[in-house]
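Researcher: Next sequence.
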Amino acid sequence: MNRKFLQYLLASLLLFAGATPAFPQDRFHRMDIGVAGGVSFYMGDAFQSHRAQPAYGVQIRRAFNPRYAIRAHFYQGSVEGNTRDFDNRFPIEQEAKFRKNIWDFGLQLEFNFLNYGLPAHLHESSRISPYIFAGLGTIGYTDDGISGNSKVTVNFPFGVGIKFKVLPRVNLIAAWSMHKLFTDEFDIARNNNLLNDPYNFGNQGGGKNADWFSFGMLALSYDLFPEQYCR
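Model: Next structure:
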């Protein structure tokens, strides 16, 4: 996946949004597909909040009803960290830094707090809804600029977001996701092993001995496959 492909897909979505006539108001759309852009960053032994990096990707959603949906995404980005400016110092004033290119595929179940996407004439319908989600993901990552050291591991994603129907078949979606890894090796640079359990938690560290990464994304999606809505 590259930026040119995403730009083409976004242009296609906008073209469809402008060219497709308004759907009948008694239709409910079961699926949408879209592009997303935003930031990615990591939380771990070398976490610094200002080190957010650009991220982008694609996503597809299948709605079971106005409250529940399942979503698949593929995001690409990068993360980095540096201990140089930390208040807490490592032994003998050691420093560590790293940068990873990441590719994340995930599948999440979403719950809308309002009846999102219902035909507009129904009094219980809503053009906007906050939502929560959780699921399972797989991340691949490699040291920036170094080939031949790619790794793949699972992660547990969860988060919050808000959906807004800007046009009858166009959705604007903002979401913030946290991804828990089950390893402390995500932030290890190829030439520096300092961040591999630096505080000696071992297996007793629980969540403190595992790394995290996050995405803050803004997506634009287009509705597909309208169906007659029945209560």
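Model: Residues 3-18+30-225 form a domain with the Porin fold (CATH 2.40.160.20). DSSP finds one helix and ten strands in the chain.
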